[in-house]
Specification:
Helix content is 49%, strand content 15%. The protein is of the alpha/beta class. Among the domains are: 61-192, Rossmann fold (3-Layer(aba) Sandwich), CATH 3.40.50; 211-371, Rossmann fold. Helix 13 (357-365) links the parallel strand 12 (346-348) and strand 13. The chain starts with a helix and ends with a helix. The chain binds NADPH dihydro-nicotinamide-adenine-dinucleotide phosphate. NADPH dihydro-nicotinamide-adenine-dinucleotide phosphate binds at residues 169-172, 174, 213, 241-246, 265-267, 325-327, 330, 350-352, 377, 380.
Length: 452
């Protein structure tokens, strides 16, 4: 960064932090984008004159609401619900709903901000939004989860719609929760529309939507590897998380010939030195999705595997490729050094912002392949966009058709990263590429639409 860009970023961040105190994840996400786009805006001063960045960091609307519900014993609980409608310059707000105890306004705003650029990268007409609650479905019965979802949707329904805001799943919100949320939406609004994505296959969902984020991350990694004449074949892959994204990243990487050796949850990780196969992945899906167990139970089924608890993460396991697929800031500078020392040469984010700024700096300084989630996990929202198209057309595409579109979109995102992120020494800075490519379309749409 030259002097102008550095001064601009520092001044901007000082004001942002003063105006949004304590929102550390939001500050982190804004700083990253700003650092990439400041030199671009300097080259195109109409963006500075239009105060595009100042407008982008201010959500168009933030909705916060009370979510009261009763547990199975009749005790009353009160959670807080959120929907951050960040930017609608290129389409209706679109982004997931997260149910996790850690949810707060900062996390909602960082996710909605990231989503704006990610959705732009997909080339589909979707604006950015995100929602959720500090409610944790973990350990709750189906009936409790249903009552919570119904209460949450009773308020949210007045703010969303197929042409306004189209939520989907995220951490803690899978097929079960989307079903309860959709049921209540339909009941209150008396309409069957594509207002939520990630729906069940029998009632408006798209084939391959559950698989899309993890599969898409692997398609993106394939493109990254190809820039160095490499493939997944024979590579050892370490994955964190064991939810939707992690399961399908593991499945696809394995099918592409890799040996995937770890999965994790917030309690710890499992290491299977033999690697996963179809049967083991099917067991993990059953364990996590059907009986809602913990990942440590894997070693009872496959005693050759080892479990390490106390919240340990899998980054010390020797690998060629790492795919963090759990949550934000789960891979720090120290972990990055260990990965590098062990020979890891490709890090593809499946989660949103899982690597800390120190980790990203270490990967880029070592010139290894590193992609930010807004590029490599965009396959999920892209396929949600395809679900919206199918709903509007009252059609259902085959999984081959959806997979072909997903694959094309991930290749196109990779090409956009190369276009805007290739540096003088030919190193591909995927952070810069994704940020600038995502930014341009939204910024120009905002300029075209005037001061709104
Ligand atoms: P799931 O709820 O299906 O799975 C989340 C996984 O991450 C679980 O294994 C969970 O373990 C673990 N996890 C959650 N919080 C923490 C934590 N604080 N520390 C350690 N582990 C944690 O969510 P998804 O797989 O859908 O989402 C994972 C990531 O991918 C998120 O960052 C999400 O924003 C992102 N993403 C998801 C998309 C999707 O389509 N679902 C699309 C794009 C991005 P535990 O059970 O112990 O909580």
């Amino acid at each position: 960064m030259d002097n102008f860009a550095k001064k601009y970023v520092d001044g901007f961040m000082t004001e942002l932090i003063a105006k949004n105190p304590g929102e550390t994840e939001f500050h982190q996400a804004v700083r990253e984008v700003l650092t990439s786009v400041a030199p671009y805006m300097q080259a195109y001063p109409y963006l500075l004159d239009n105060k595009i960045m100042e407008r982008m960091v201010e959500p168009e609307r933030v909705i916060m609401f009370r979510v009261p519900w009763t547990d199975d014993k009749g005790e009353i609980h009160v959670n807080r619900g959120y929907r951050v409608q960040m930017n609608s310059a290129i389409g209706p707000y679109k982004g997931g709903i997260r149910f996790h105890a850690s949810v707060n306004l900062s996390i909602m705003k960082f996710l909605a901000f990231e989503q704006t650029f990610k959705n732009s990268l997909t080339t589909l007409p979707m604006g950015g939004g995100k929602g959720g609650s500090d409610f944790s479905p973990r350990g709750r019965s189906d009936a409790e989860v249903m009552r919570f979802c119904q209460s949450f949707m009773t308020e949210l329904q007045r703010h969303i719609g197929q042409d306004t805001d189209v939520p989907a799943g995220d951490i803690g919100v899978g097929g079960r929760e989307i079903g309860y949320l959709f049921g209540q939406y339909k009941r209150l609004r008396d309409e069957f529309t594509g207002t939520l994505t990630g729906k069940g296959l029998g009632w408006g969902g798209s084939l391959l939507r559950p698989e899309a984020t993890g599969y898409g991350a692997c398609y993106f990694a394939q493109e990254m590897l190809a820039t160095r004449g490499e493939t997944f074949e024979g590579k050892t892959v370490v994955i964190s998380g064991s939810g939707n994204v992690a399961q399908h990243a593991a499945e696809k990487a394995m099918r592409l010939g890799a040996k995937v050796v770890t999965l994790s949850d917030s309690d710890g990780f499992i290491y299977d030195p033999d690697g996963f196969n179809e049967e083991k992945i099917a067991y993990v899906k059953h364990l996590k999705n059907a009986i809602r167990g913990r990942i440590k139970e894997y070693v009872k089924q496959y005693p050759n595997a080892q479990y390490t608890g106390e919240g340990t993460k899998p980054w010390a396991v020797k690998c060629d490729i790492a795919m963090p697929c759990a949550t934000q800031n789960e891979l720090n500078g120290e972990a990055a050094k260990v990965l590098l020392a062990n020979g890891c040469f490709c890090v593809t984010e499946g989660a949103n912002m899982p690597c800390t700024p120190e980790a990203i700096e270490a990967f880029q300084a070592a010139k290894i392949l590193y992609s930010p989630g807004k590029a490599s996990n965009a396959g999920g929202v892209a396929t949600s966009g395809l679900e919206m198209s199918q709903n509007s057309m009252r059609q259902k595409w085959t999984s081959e058709e959806v997979d072909a579109q997903l694959h094309r979109i991930m290749k196109d995102i990779h090409a956009a990263c190369i276009k805007y992120g290739t540096e003088e020494d030919r190193y591909i800075n995927y952070v810069k590429g994704a940020n600038i490519a995502g930014f341009i379309k939204v910024a120009n749409a905002m300029v075209d639409q005037g001061l709104v």
